[in-house]
């Protein structure tokens, strides 16, 4: 069944908004563990957390301006992100970076799809997405540079990241 333009509009904004809230939790969880295990990572993770917080606020404003409802209980996305962030960070420094690289690649694809939709329907939202995409690409590239090659832990991180992102998106579409 094809969704109306208004429903697609709202769906894209809700998914991005909810997932940005989840990202704030992921970086919070990563920072919490890094503070006692990898203190040298805290400044970079703090900057990334700040970007995600800004993105969440921006999409909240866009939802309000466009009269689109937010997802119910956004704290669920944050809590899920914190749990995921803590678990992956406990798996090690590489897991933090690999997790970030994978999640940011997923976010990149979601934002590109949304940007394509909004280019045709709302240039203001498309421009906001393009700006946010720059931050997300920077996060991905920084994380990829810190997790080059392959390690055994990668086999566990990717399925967790993909499953978490898909669950987050599915819930955002329904709640």
TrEMBL record:
The keyword Lyase appears for this protein: no
GO biological process, one term: ubiquinone biosynthetic process
Residue ranges of coiled coil: none
Entry-linked InterPro entries: Ferritin-like_SF (IPR009078), Ubq_synth_Coq7 (IPR011566)
Keyword check for Iron: yes
SUPFAM superfamilies: Ferritin-like
Domain of life, per lineage: Bacteria
Protein name stated in the entry: Demethoxyubiquinone hydroxylase family protein
Organism: Methylovulum psychrotolerans
